[in-house]
Amino acid sequence: MNHSSENHTEQPFRCGYVAVLGRPNVGKSTLMNHILGQKVSITSRKPQTTRHRVLGIYTDNEAQILFVDTPGIHSKEERSINRYMNRAATSSMTDVDVLLFVVDGTQWTDDDELVLNKVSQAKGKKVLFVNKVDKLTDKEELLPHIAQITEKCHFDAVFPGSALKGQNLEQLTATLKSYLPEGDLFYPEDYITDRSERFMAAELIREKLMRSLGEEIPYSSTVEIEQFKFNDKGVLTISGLILVERPGQKAIIIGKKGQRLKQIGRDARLEMEELFDCKVFLELWVKVKDGWADDERALKSLGYNDY
Ligand SMILES: Nc1nc2c(ncn2[C@@H]2O[C@H](COP(=O)(O)OP(=O)(O)OP(=O)(O)O)[C@@H](O)[C@H]2O)c(=O)[nH]1
Predict the structure, then answer these.
(1) Whether residue 218 has its Cβ less than 6 Å from ligand 1
(2) Local confidence pLDDT in tens for the 307 residues of the chain
(3) pTM for this prediction
(4) Which of 65, 83, 85 is nearest to 25 (CA)?
(5) How many angstroms is it from 222 CA to the middle of ligand 1?
(6) 102 DSSP β-pair partners
(7) 241-264 b/e (C-beta count within 10 Å ≥ 16 → b)
(8) Which ligand 1 atom sits nearest the alpha carbon of residue 48?
(9) Which ligand 1 atom lies nearest to the CA of residue 49?
């Protein structure tokens, strides 16, 4: 696609940053992935799935939107990993053109209030997206909910909708584009993220872990990619190391006769083959590394070092 020659509207091309903000689990990653039409940020039913700041790049013939998907901001900061995630999200609020505040239309919590306070103090255009309205049985509840939020902070635009069902996302995207400054592309038009394929591979493994395990272990695990190599037949070999904090957690991830780890590997491999468009050979290992989530130095060595 040639973005300039297809622009028949004679409107100037626009390009800029949109930070996607909200507490954990409101649907930020789902929203960004749906607009991009591709999975850039991993999602799961569990809060705090996104740990890093991930750039999702949307390009059409009118604009390029650089979505900054952030970890959910939350008040419980007992561990280093939680402080890291809050830093990653809060630092995304400066130097962006638009703040997109995502809330769950069915629920309001203290963490929503915390993010709203941060948003109200930030500069830039502000857009409110009230998500998960597909789950609302009584749509009448929406208006008072929106009124309560907009009383506390001025929003330039408000959209109720559904990230999962794609409801109201076209209108949202058009408004976001109109708020961006004039300017040429920052990234080539075929880029969908600034993250490396290695990073995406680790994230896909982490997503399958989050989705397959119970409540506690996902937060105690992280993934390192030790090998990422194409052979001369174009087959990609990936070795992933899953780090956990305790031996019992290792046993759970491996599962009876290695069944769970096998399933996690199979699910991750299939998505990798689609994403990288080649045959993938994936090996997974599980190792105990006590206290990695509490230790700032260990976090840095695991790649949690951008902020
Ligand atoms: N019913 C419904 N579910 C949704 C919608 N959007 C997201 N979800 C679900 O909500 C859960 C959380 O979605 P995520 O996109 O991972 O949420 P997030 O805000 O990125 O979460 P963190 O990574 O914790 O910050 C997932 O199970 C999604 O499928 C929606 O519009 N409707």
Answers:
(1) no
(2) 445 445 555 789 999 999 999 999 999 999 999 999 988 888 888 777 777 778 899 999 999 999 998 888 788 777 777 887 877 777 777 779 999 999 999 999 999 999 999 999 998 999 999 999 999 988 888 999 999 999 999 999 999 999 999 999 999 999 999 999 999 999 999 888 988 889 899 999 999 998 888 766 667 788 999 999 999 999 999 999 999 988 988 999 999 999 999 999 999 999 999 989 999 999 999 999 887 777 777 677 666 665 5
(3) 0.83
(4) 85
(5) 21
(6) 129
(7) bbbbbeeebbebbbeeeeebbeeb
(8) 24
(9) 23
Q: ipTM value, please give it.
A: 0.98
- Kindly give, in sequence order, each residue whose CB lies less than 8 Å from that of residue 282, ignoring residues fewer than 6 positions away: 238, 239, 240, 265, 268, 269, 272
Does the beta carbon of 27 lie inside 6 Å of ligand 1?
yes
Q: Which residues are annotated as a binding site for GTP?
A: 22-29, 69-73, 131-134
Backbone angles phi, psi at 72, to 5 degrees: -60, 130
What domains sit in the chain, N to C, each tagged with a CATH number? 14-178 (3.40.50.300), 197-301 (3.30.300.20)
- Copy the structure tokens of residue 240: 């992933």
DSSP code string of 220-261 = G-EEEEEEEEE-TTSPEEEEEEEEESSHHHHHHHH-GGGHHH
For residue 106, how far is its CA from the centre of ligand 1 (angstroms)? 12
Pocket test for ligand 1, best of 34, 43, 92, 111 (most atoms within 8 A of CB): 43
Taking residue 79's Cβ as centre, other Cβ atoms within 10 Å add up to 16
Query: What Cα–Cα distance (Å) separates residue 153 from each residue in 69, 123, 135, 173, 175?
Result: 21, 12, 25, 21, 19
Q: For residue 68, give the 3-state DSSP assignment.
A: strand
Q: What are phi and psi of 239, to 5 degrees?
A: -110, 125
